Amino acid sequence: MRRLLAFIFLAAGVSAVAASAEAQECGQVSIAEMNWASAGIAAHVDKIILENGYGCTVTLVAGDTMPTFASMNEKAEPDMAPELWVNSVRTALNAAVKDGRLIEAARILSEGGVEGWWIPKFIADAHPEIRTVRDALSRPDLFPAPDNPSRGAIHNCPAGWNCQISTANLFRALEAQKAGFELVDTGAAAGLDGSIAEAFENKTGWLGYYWAPTAILGKYEMTLLSFGVDHDRAEWDSCSAVPDCPAPKVNSYPVSDVYTVVTRSFAQKAAVAMDYVNARSWDNATINKVLAWMDQNQGTSEDAARYFLSNFQSTWVPWVSPAVAEKVKAAI
């Protein structure tokens, strides 16, 4: 009996030491909470899982793409950027990864950040022959302009955004005006969103620029149209994205690579969580739905993270071990 009790106490002690070692191994972790909604949600999802599943002590710090990357690259702070849009820092990131300062972990947006011209899904379903932008341009009657229903409308990107330039150039490259279309200035982002909401409310056609992930695409089902050509980076940089380019060509929007990036010190002190960081990825449809819930319920990033963890378990449970999953479920 004494031997049995001694064994039980020894086993309990080993378990306690193991749990303590796991927490110590993770330790203090800093995560960049970027200043846009999807990244804010990702930061809070990471905080909840790392704290409750792996015993980390997590601090969120305000961030943005360029300053956060520079700080991680030069100072190894913060430890993690959950949603880093890497196209703008690709050369420097490659060098940092090669030198071992930073680690490129999961592609958090599995499809990347997506831009393009979209139509409502109810239009796409009713007209399966419309698969490309040129197909849509053959039917101006399906996409009436707000102030001139006899012509079609292509809704432009908000004023002052870079995509306003590329959309205008593509409008000219496609000779959309000859096809019976007008390029509609939507003003601010709220105007663009409002035009989509009105189209769905009235069940009328809508054609124009939008991007993902976003709350609007979580609230309203839209279909992305193909431009029928691959993205030409050289053409994009020399003309498509240049104001008033004299001879624009049809081009596709670039897909933005979006990854989780961590410092070498994080990989060392939180090695127990690296499998999670390397596995954590979601598609745009999922985060669109979470963003829509957040918008409709006026929730915070933390609220949206808890909503995701409660309602999308089939997505996140495979990212972690069964033991970690149970700890996280108990915490939400």
Return the domain count: 2
Pairing-aware structural class of the strands and helices? alpha/beta
At the fold tier of CATH, the topology name of the largest domain is: D-Maltodextrin-Binding Protein, domain 2
Which CATH class of the largest domain is shown? Alpha Beta
CATH architecture title of the largest domain: 3-Layer(aba) Sandwich
Strand element count: 10
- Average of per-residue pLDDT values: 92
Major pleated sheet: 3 strands, antiparallel
Strand content: 15-25%
Over the alpha carbons, how many angstroms does the gyration radius reach? 24 Å
- What strand order characterises the main sheet? 3-10-4
Number of helices: 16
Low-confidence stretches: 1-24
CATH superfamily of the largest domain: Periplasmic binding protein-like II
- Helix percentage range: 40-55%
Morphology call: globular
Distance between the first and last residues' Cα: 41 Å
Order of helices and strands: HEHEHEHEEHHEHEHEHEHEHHHHHH
